[in-house]
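note to self — DONT lose this again. spent like an hour looking for the file last time. sequence + predicted structure for the chain T wanted, 237 res
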Amino acid sequence: MTADPGLGLHGHPVTLFGHWICPYSVRVSFALAERRIPHDVVDVPPTAVRPPGFVVPDEFVAHSPKGEIPMVRVGGEHRADSIPVLEWLETCVSGRPLLPPGDDDRALVRVRTAWIDAHVFPPMIGIYYGTGHDRIARASDELATALAVMGGWLDDADWLAGDGPTLAEAVVVPVYVRLEALARLGFHGAVDPRVARHAERCRGLGGWPAVAWTSAQTDEVVGRFERHRANIRADRG
């Protein structure tokens, strides 16, 4: 990946430990690509999709306290957990940041990234892991409601927390990446039209190609969760 002039991390090499299937890892992949920060990727699948015999790198074990991706190394320093990683990277980059300079504007970005993390991601995961029609339907309704709240932020704005893309976009992009898979797994709520337009704008950003799923990746994810549901039903007899 080639950096624009003036961008970078002060000459320090950057490595992301992550995997395309993990939404939290996708947040960091998107932010790195959006900022055109050159970086290497060490593929570390989440525990649930880790193939038999996969050897987790010693460096990851040593520096990821929870043993969860993503983790980023900049020079000799490591950080784990997606939102803290995103914030940390902002202290290392030059050029237009994904955190605005003003205190009030930064506070708005942080409030909205935290809200998305708390209200959008749980029902999304609930749809994935839901095993009964009622449970999936509740999660679907909760996700549609959360997206409608986000839509309210977009009434008079193109972006979630400012006049351009911010960390709020990086945090929500994994949901947009998964919309087709979610629909196939039971998300039957209407996507707020303001959010649909925002998703389309995000698809036009420089970071999108780095995280967009192919049809084969969507099929793989849907197949994994369909098998998970079938196994749960079989165990219950």
